[in-house]
Amino acid sequence: MSSAMLREVVSEDHLDGLDELRYQLLRISTSGELDDDQRELLKRALEAASILDDFPEYFYIKDRRSRYVYVNAATAAASSSYANGGMLGTTIFDHIRLEKAEEIFMLEQQLMSVGTGVVEREEFIEVLDRDPVWLLTTKTPLHNAAGEVIGLIGVSRDITERKRQEELRRCHATLLEMIARGQPLPKVLDALTHLVEQQLSDVCASVLLIEEGSDRLRHGAAPSLPDTYVKLIDGIEIGPRTGSCGTAAWRQSRVVVSDIENDPLWHSFADLALVFGFRACWSNPIMAPDGEVLGTVALYARTVREPTAVELELMAVATDIAGIAIERARSEERIRHMAHHDALTGLPNRALFWTQFNRVLLEAKRTKAKVTVAYIDLDNFKQINDRFGHAAGDEVLKVLAGRMAACVRASDLLVRLGGDEFAIVFPNSFQDEPGIVRRLQELRMAVSSPVTVEDHTIRPSCSMGAAFFPQDGDTPEALLASADRAMYEAKELGRDRLRVSHSLLMDGSGI
Questions:
Q1: CB-based contacts of 429: which residues, under 8 Å, 6+ apart?
Q2: In the prediction, which pLDDT does 45 show?
Q3: Which residues, other chains included, contact 463 with Cβ-Cβ below 8 Å and sequence gap of 6+?
Q4: For the packed helices 309-340 and 185-199, what is the interaxial angle rounded to 10 degrees?
Q5: Range 350-500 classified under CATH 3.40.190.10
Q6: Which residues 6+ apart lie within 8 Å of 505 measured at CB?
Q7: Across-strand partners of 68?
Q8: For the chain, what are the domain ranges?
Q9: Residues 3-30: what's their mean pLDDT?
Q10: 3-state secondary structure (DSSP) of residue 454
């Protein structure tokens, strides 16, 4: 093999990259046709630091005892020594953790014992003096002129970033699958923040969610933040100087605070963060397609510093996934709400009514509590539709539903049964009938107040029937039927009045 051939092997003008160089070097080293002079040329080529030192990949030669006899500059720089000579005579045991060093040593010895072949493998290496790396390594035996194995040639490429991207894509797919399968939002966000923290070192990830109907951020996920800190920032207001997250939501753009202690955005909150050791915080707003702010994704660091490019990239990915998860959860909640609520009034519908009514009765039977059911029917509502139109009738229904909702407690169940009919279930209701009557009459009077629609004043009224558990029935169906019968008795008596299932009480004139 001529010097010209070797120059062709290592010349950048004739290479298609590292793979071609690796192939040519291995082809030369394993050729059975090389004489001593050609071997010497190969050795000189490998030792030509002016050529190989330009490559970021790791080139090295080891002897039969797996000791380094040549390393290029990239290999030396990756160790604790920065001069090529510093690694010569050392072994893999001097540079990486013992368990992995033993594995690599045994594989090299096996390769040299066989004396032929090429070994290529991906290896996760925990280096003693720097961060772990993934390497794609190719090794082949090196022979002398007599054909005896005198060592091996190795070429390693750092594929840490490639493996990180592969893991990121895998986790990305897993999270999207969780979202597609309808996993609960807290579970998705918890998995997301764990992913971020696994990919990065020395940071804590956090997701805050906008509280619907307010300008506050609520806890979403933060697996590594101290519980006390999470509780203290839960409910933080959105504003122009409310830390990284509150400000990011306010500005609707990324906020990078590299020094919490001295940044004016953290003036009112710095002491809180510093107590827990946080020195920097970077936050992205989570935006809906329509421009609505859904929350924030943040990374906390314990040193004063700017985020790295990798950290910013991962924040962007996490922000996108969080946005998808939140939008999906909101869409599912809207669908559930539509399935169980009346589209016109927003009140629970029949389907939800029966489910919750059954639950109320089961609890009442267990605790021996009383339950009151009221059936409400608007009087002469057809005349309102006929005279003023269905749009006006719908507006009246919405107004009256709002009035009734204002008269009941959060624990009460108010539903629209359909048309102009409503029902109310009062769990743990008053112990005496006069108390029940007073409350229902207050509700009836609220319904009877005039309603103005499109410059028309409409004076509605309603007939009401009431039934009691356990006197009038012990099932939802039986109780509602009793209340319905009482309501029709009220209509027969002249409308605009309340009728109780087992005794007649009150007309429209009051108690």
A1: 370, 371, 372, 436, 468
A2: 46
A3: 376, 377, 379, 487, 488, 490, 491, 495, 496, 497, 498, 499
A4: 170
A5: no
A6: 433, 437, 498, 499
A7: 62
A8: 3-158, 163-338, 350-500
A9: 42
A10: coil
Comparing C-alpha atoms, which of 430, 465, 463 is closest to residue 473?
A: 465
DSSP annotation string for 69-80: EEE-HHHHHTSS
Look at the block and give the residue holding tokens 């953790």: 97
Pair 463, 495: CB distance under 8 Å:
yes
84 neighbors 119 (Cβ within 8 angstroms): no
Give me the torsion for CA of 316, 319, 321, 327, rounded to 10°.
-150
Crossing angle of helices 350-367 and 309-340, in 10° steps, is 90
Which CATH code fits 3-158? 3.30.450.20
User: What pTM was computed for the model?
Assistant: 0.65
Active site residues: 420
Q: 142-154, pLDDT tens digit by residue?
A: 887 788 888 888 9
Instruction: Answer yes or no: are the C-beta atoms of 46 and 59 closer than 8 Å.
Output: yes
DSSP letters spanning 316-365: HHHHHHHHHHHHHHHHHHHHHHHHHB-TTT--B-HHHHHHHHHHHHHHHH
Per-residue pLDDT averaged across 442-460, rounded? 91
What percent of the chain is predicted at pLDDT more than 70? Answer: 86
Reference 138, options 229, 26, 262, 4; nearest CA is: 26
pLDDT tens per residue, range 360-390: 999 999 988 889 999 999 999 999 999 999 9
Asked whether this chain's domains 3-158 and 350-500 adopt the same fold, the reply is no
- How far, in Å, CA of 343 to CA of 349, rounded? 9
Q: CA–CA separation, 279 vs 304, rounded Å?
A: 5
Q: Does the 163-338 domain belong in CATH 3.90.550.10?
A: no
Q: What is the pLDDT of residues 303-332, one digit of tens each?
A: 999 999 999 999 999 999 999 999 999 988
Residues paired with 462 in a beta bridge: 378
Amino acid, res. 331: S
